[in-house]
Specification:
4-stranded mixed sheet; alpha/beta
Length: 217
Amino acid sequence: LNPRLVIWEDCEGRYYPLPDSDTSVYINASGGKMYHRRAVCPCISEEYYPLKAIPYIDLMSPEYASLKPCTQCNPPERPETYVQMNVTFTSGNAIYLDDSNGAYYHKNPYCSLYSKSDLPLHMATLTERNSEAFASLLPCPICVGKTQNPTLYYNPKGGKRYHSDSYCSSVNSDRLPLTPFDYYQLDDPEFAPLSPCPYCRPPARGIYPTRKTSSQN
C-alpha cells in the first residue's frame, strides 16, 4: 500500500495545486473502473499489465468521466475534485489566469475557451491580483455562465441530498458515480426536496437563479 497523507491548513488563501495536464495516469483499457498512478498496480491482475497511459487532462473527457482514483496506488484526485477543493478553501475567491496575457480572468482552471495543451490555468497570486494588468482584465463570459449554473449531483435511487462531487465520500460506493444535473434545475419538482450535502458542501439554494426564480421575475 502507498498511503497518502495530506496536511491542510483550512484558511483563506490556501489552495491545492493542480497537476500538469500531461501528467500520466494509467487505466485498464479492458473495462477498468479506476485510474492509477503507475503502469503496474497491485490491485490489478497481471494479465492486464502494463496499464495504458493517458494524460491527466483526459479524465475530463466523457470516455473517462466515470473513472475514480485507485485507493491503493493513490493517483491524483479527479480534476473536478481539486477545483471544488479550491472553491471550498478559498471561499469561492479562486481566480485563474492564462500564461499568455489573455483578456480575461477565470473562475475555472479548465475553462473551455482553451485547448487541452494550455490547461490548467494557474491560480492568480495576491501580487498578480493587485497589479495594474489584472485591473484591466474582464471576467470570462464562459466561466461566469458556468459559475452561475454549476453542475450538481444526486442519487436518483432515493438520495436525500445534492452534492458538488460525483464521488462524494458520504455516499455508498455502489451508488457512485452520482448523476449530474444543473443548479438551474434545483427548484424543479424532482430536485426540490433535496438538501445540500454537509460533506462536499455544494452551493446553497438561493445563491444563483433557478428556473423557478427566473420565471417569478
